[in-house]
Design a protein that fits this description.
Blueprint: E1 2-5, E2 8-15, E3 29-37, H1 49-60, H2 68-75, H3 79-90, H4 94-112, H5 117-123, H6 129-140, H7 144-165
Antiparallel strand pairs: 1-2, 2-3
Length: 166
């Protein structure tokens, strides 16, 4: 089941399991429930103008290779100061922030356009499909293709539920 509530995506898979030695089914058991925050991660009031410019640059150039040294130069900070300021402003390291944004954009692309997994991977800036799948799974708790299937199945179930009420 896929639920969107307050900018959070909640995935819940419900399975039935047999009790040992009995043929009756056990009650519903929640197998996976993962919240993925899709809200903006940087509070603008706490960020310096240089960091805001860097975050905007990251969003604009997500599909391109981004290096930390390039972002440090853009922000006019040393590497250590940049990491400290970025983590304080966003709650993520720069690499984790870039991966987070890429994964969120890939989730949108997976649902909007039915491109192959490799196409989506390269469109959002990952260089390796296996690393993309591993990173996506880290954030969403499932592989990209399973995510696509779960969301489509949930949407079909919702439509079916609405039409059966009428």
């Amino acid at each position: 089941m896929f639920i969107l509530r307050n900018n959070c995506i909640i995935f819940a898979f419900i399975v039935f399991t047999k009790q040992q030695g009995r043929s009756s089914m056990k009650r519903k058991r929640l197998l996976l429930r993962k919240k993925v925050d899709t809200s903006p991660v940087h509070p603008a009031s706490q960020s310096s103008p240089q960091l805001l410019r860097t975050i905007a640059y990251i969003h604009q150039h997500l599909s391109e290779p981004l290096s930390i040294s390039q972002l440090c130069r853009l922000c006019c900070m040393s590497r250590a100061n940049f990491f400290r300021a970025f983590k304080r402003a966003t709650g993520f390291s720069p690499v984790a922030f870039i991966n987070h944004e890429r994964v969120l954009r890939s989730a949108q692309l997976l649902l909007r356009d039915f491109h192959s997994l490799a196409d989506v991977c390269y469109q959002v800036g990952f260089n390796s499909v296996s690393y993309f799948i591993r990173t996506f799974k880290k954030y969403f708790g499932m592989t990209p293709l399973r995510y696509r299937a779960a969301v489509i199945l949930s949407a079909k179930a919702r439509v079916h539920q609405q039409t059966s009420k009428v």
